[in-house]
Amino acid sequence: MKIPDGDTRAARGLEDRLADFFNVTRETLRKRCDECEAFVRRSPTQSLLTAVGIGYILNKLPLVSIGVAIGRLVFALLRPAAILFCVIKIYDSLNRKQEGSAPVTTPAAAPEAAPPF
After folding, report:
1. How would residue 1 be classed by pLDDT, with cut points 50, 70 and 90?
2. 11, 37, 98, 117: least CB-packed within 10 angstroms?
3. pLDDT digits (tens, 9 = 90+) for 29-44
4. For residue 11, what are the contacts with CB-CB under 8 A and spacing of at least 6?
5. Is the separation of the CB atoms in 34 and 26 below 8 Å?
């Protein structure tokens, strides 16, 4: 099946945007990591106390229960999302067929001809 030129260009544009997004995100994370490392080197005591405090708070939070609740929510919404996605794709496909093709006409019934040999 051949992909139309417009779809190819759209896919390339999307690919370029995603690559740009990931490059910017990677650079931002590198900068933040370097800043964090510099802060830890400047004030190690404050960094250690902050880490202990965050660890204590995370230990007190019911993370397993939160994770289970999020998992249940995702699985509950997965089926309706899949159905909605299929409906949108069917609608899009029908619109493309109507825009791209002439009205379908059935040929008049003709007697069947013998195949040429």
Report:
1. very low
2. 117
3. 999 999 999 999 999 9
4. 3
5. no
